[in-house]
Design a protein that fits this description.
By secondary structure, the chain is α/β, with parallel strands linked by helices. The protein has a single domain, classed as NAD(P)-binding Rossmann-like Domain (Rossmann fold, 3-Layer(aba) Sandwich). The protein is built from nine helices and ten strands. A seven-stranded parallel beta sheet has the order 3-2-1-4-6-7-8, with helices on both faces. α5 links the parallel β6 and β7.
Length: 292
């Protein structure tokens, strides 16, 4: 798959959260390959280091820095931005991509703690990232771009649990509001809404199993992390200079055909048992018995 389009980000710095795996790792490779200085941030510090090692193997390591951080903690967001400025002198872009599957199961059995965890990572993380990254971008006065990872689950029912879907819908709304607020500083704010992308967050190390249970999509190829990284790169590039406040859907046509990724009604696999998916954070996910 082709990735780079020359070195259009030469001299620019991007902070990527959730860059230890999946979409974030692919984005780190994409931006570094196009000349950007990349801060690789992830809750899983080991995974962040592995992304940096991969960049080094590809001859990109000199322009890469890593930091472990929890996007739901304000001090960690400050530290991420401070590292970018201290190491590379400026911040131009942020790809606020960190995510988890979050709470799933029937709403009657969803705990407040799991609901809050979902929103802390997926919504509070974008809020705090945008808050501190936008301030750093404003300091050099030349504008820049923020890109958040939303989801088709935030645009239509049937593509995720109620908690995940609600959180991603909040990201879509926040994108629009921040685009209006930050336009005067020439900071564009957009989001990308992936469909079914073969990442560890989705397949949990068993891509062949998830592919066998998901309904087919119109586009014949499976979605790959590089597909979403390409959209993020476009949204940060000068080619998107007049695009702000948008959510770009990259889903192989799933929304076009209608969505019921995990089944419907009693057959929805997300409704069978409650729990919480903590993604690739390194912390264990949970699946609870209900006695039903």
């Amino acid at each position: 798959m082709s990735t780079a389009s020359g070195r259009r980000f030469e001299g620019k710095t991007i902070l990527i959260t959730g860059a230890g795996s999946g979409i974030g790792r692919a984005a780190a490779m994409r931006f570094a390959g196009e000349g950007a200085q990349v801060v690789i941030a992830d809750y899983n510090g080991t995974a962040a280091d592995e992304t940096a090692q991969l960049a080094a193997q590809r001859g990109l390591g000199a322009a890469v820095a890593t930091v472990r951080g929890d996007v739901s903690v304000e001090a960690d967001n400050v530290a991420m931005v401070d590292l970018a400025v201290a190491r590379f002198g400026r911040l131009d872009f942020a790809f606020l991509n960190a995510g988890v599957g979050g709470a799933f199961g029937p709403i009657a059995e969803t705990s407040v703690e799991d609901w809050d965890y979902t929103f802390h990572v997926l919504v509070r993380g974008v809020f705090l990232g945008a808050k501190h990254c936008s301030q750093a971008i404003r300091r050099h006065g030349q504008g820049g771009a923020l890109v958040a990872t939303a989801s088709i689950a935030g645009l239509a029912g049937g593509a995720g649990s109620h908690a995940y879907s609600a959180a991603k819908a909040a990201v879509v709304s926040l994108t629009r509001s921040l685009a209006v607020e930050l336009a005067e500083y020439r900071i564009r704010v957009n989001s990308v809404a992936p469909g079914t992308i073969m990442t560890p967050l989705l397949h949990r190390g068993r891509p062949e199993k998830i592919q066998s249970v998901l309904p087919p999509q119109p586009w014949p190829d499976h979605g790959e992390p590089e597909n979403i990284a390409a959209v993020a790169a476009f949204l940060c590039s000068d080619d998107a200079a007049f695009i702000t406040g948008e959510t770009i859907v990259a889903d192989g046509g799933r929304i076009a055909q209608g969505i019921a990724l995990f089944g419907t009604g009693a057959g929805n696999v997300l409704m069978q048992r409650p729990g919480v998916n903590r993604g690739s954070t390194g912390e264990p996910s949970e699946l609870r018995n209900t006695g039903r």
